[in-house]
Amino acid sequence: MTSGITVAVFGAYGHTGRFVVAQLRDRGFVPVLSGRDADKLKMLAASESGLDARPASVGDPASLDRALAGAAAVINCAGPFATTAAPVIEAALRAGIPYVDVAAEIEANVDTFTHFADRARAAGAVIVPAMAFYGGLGDLLATAAMGDWSAADEAHIAYGLSSWHPTAGTRVAGAVSRQRRGGRRVRYTNGGLEYRHDDPPTLEWFFPDPMGPRAVIGEFTMADVVTVPSHLSIPEVRTYMTVEAARDISDPDTPTPAPVDERGRSAQTFLVDVIVRSGGSERRAVASGQDIYAVTAPLVVEAVDRILTGRTRTVGVASAGEIFDAPDFLRALSPYISLELRP
Q1: Would you say 104 and 300 are in contact if contact means Cβ atoms under 8 Å apart?
Q2: In 10 A of CB 69, how many CB atoms?
């Protein structure tokens, strides 16, 4: 049972953080609100009766220690994760509690695996990066699609978004990633990340009904190129994005998400189509739902629940598909996504 267990949320007042706080409360956890802006924390605490607000800064380790004191786990929702992930992970290691984040930044996730894998494994600690729509969901779907395969030749993850109204945090994180890449784009090929100066291709992807064939940006690379190869033997991992959504995210005038229902979700819909191929065989997993930011909350809270109740397969730094039973995890998300596995 996890009822009454305290979970710290760093970046609790952000767009995704608010969904995570609500999801934690729905699941019986007690969120501790934390983040860098004390005024925003006070406002959130005033609207979330009975919750503790603990301001903290990534440049002040003692403040992070105070924020995590007594918590059973910490969820980091505060980007850019190139700046926040390492300090909050260090605080979690000092506190001896699991760390989970929702980072979509490719380079930040690489940093987490690179810098903390050995220490976390030696300490028996659990660190799960990219436990979100990008990185986590795709990895779970690819892992479920693999089934009993120990290896595959290629994995393709196509994102069919009706639109993409980015949050301010998404824009900042994207700017940080572009700066770190020196303006280059990245793809995962021949078992490693490859940085390129050319434009990505545009092609047609045949999404399952009712979406059907759509123009997509090929090699529109997301965090899946870090999470999937971290534990699955697949030398080619490609991700794709519908042209309309890619245009939205690239347009500086695209507005932020607007709520349309009682949960605060936007009208955005998504369909994630994952295909893994080995030799002449192909397997597929498909998930659909509403609002990529809102669906991150049940993903990350389900992860925390499973970690705290011992439903994990490993320790150290691990992606969703490695540490959890992927088909079972996806089935647990049935209130939020529709799932189809096509072996």
Answers
A1: no
A2: 12
Alpha carbon separation from 258 to 108, 162, 163, 221, 338 (Å, rounded):
28, 14, 12, 26, 23
Residue 242 forms beta bridges with which residues? Answer: 216
Q: Which residues contact 247 (CB under 8 A, 6 or more apart)?
A: none
Contacts of 280 (CB under 8 A, 6+ apart): none
Omega before 80 within 30 of 0, i.e. cis: yes
Beta-sheet strand order (sheet of 73-76): 52-55, 30-35, 6-10, 73-76, 99-101, 126-128, 316-317
Phi first, then psi, for residue 270 (nearest 5°) are -140, 155
Provide the residue type at 334 as one letter.
S
pLDDT tens-digit profile of 137-161?
999 999 999 999 999 999 999 999 9
Please enumerate in sequence order all residues whose Cβ is within 8 A of that of 342, keeping only pairs 6 or more positions apart, or say none: 283, 284, 285, 286
Instruction: Give the burial class of 115: count Cβ atoms within 10 A of its Cβ; 0-12 exposed, 13-18 middle, 19 or more buried.
Output: middle
Tokens of 147: 């089934």
Token representation of residue 138: 């795709």
What is the Cα–Cα distance from 229 to 235, expressed in whole angstroms? 7
What the block records as the tokens of 127 is: 């660190």
Q: Please write the tens of the pLDDT for every residue from 17-57.
A: 999 999 999 999 999 999 999 999 999 999 998 899 999 99
Give strand ranges (E) for the chain.
6-10, 30-35, 52-55, 73-76, 99-101, 126-128, 154-161, 185-189, 192-196, 202-206, 213-218, 236-242, 269-278, 281-290, 316-317, 337-342
Burial 225-239 (b: 16+ CB within 10 A, else e): bbbbbbbbebebbbb
* Residue 28: count of CB within 10 angstroms of its CB: 12
Output the six-digit token pair for 61: 């380790």
3-class DSSP assignment, residue 8: strand
Nearest to 116 by CA among 138, 133, 91: 91
